[in-house]
Amino acid sequence: MFIFNFKVNGSKIFKYFFTGIVLLIIGILIFVSIKLFLGAKNEKNISSCMPQNSISKISSKNYTNVLKAVHENIDNYVGMRINFTGYVYRVLDLTDTQFILARDMIISSDFQYVIVGFLCELDNAKDFKDETWVELTGEITKGDYHGDMPIIKVTEIKAVDKPNEEYVYPPDESYIPTSDIL
After folding, report:
1. pLDDT tens figures, 73-121
2. What is the pTM of this model?
3. Is there a contact between 156 and 136 (Cβ–Cβ < 8 Å)?
4. DSSP summary character for residue 178
5. In whole angstroms, what is the distance from residue 26 CA to residue 31 CA?
6. CATH number reported for the structural domain that contains residue 53 in this entry
7. Structural domain that includes position 27
8. Is residue 1 part of a domain?
């Protein structure tokens, strides 16, 4: 009868354990590097916010999701044509050919809101007074307004009545206000 005497060598177990952990970390780093360098994109967010047809209609339900997605990934949307409704809003540092096609985004249960919107360019922009509701179709371009900014080059515009759903709501994900005035 044989009795095996098994001797546990602490230094060998530590070496195997340490080698296994190092190989696991190297594997994770390789995986992350491949994803990073190949430019892994979140296709789900892009396709859920804006349909990929010739002219994408933006509604009050998906307005802020589209606005957020386009501002965060301008290059993915350059050249896309969109159609949406809002009111003309201007700030002091816009040129004569620029305006913001704005909506009021509700940010609290007592109906406090902030103005959100796309910067638009149109040769006859002065023909549309502030707070005029319009429907426009245009192409997303990349421009500069206090940094990289999506700018809608307007191809069609017409005055419309104020819609029933004049307010929009924050994007589906958690929203952090950019102002402390609230």
Report:
1. 888 888 899 999 999 999 888 888 999 999 888 887 777 888 898 999 9
2. 0.62
3. yes
4. S
5. 9
6. 2.40.50.140
7. 9-40
8. no
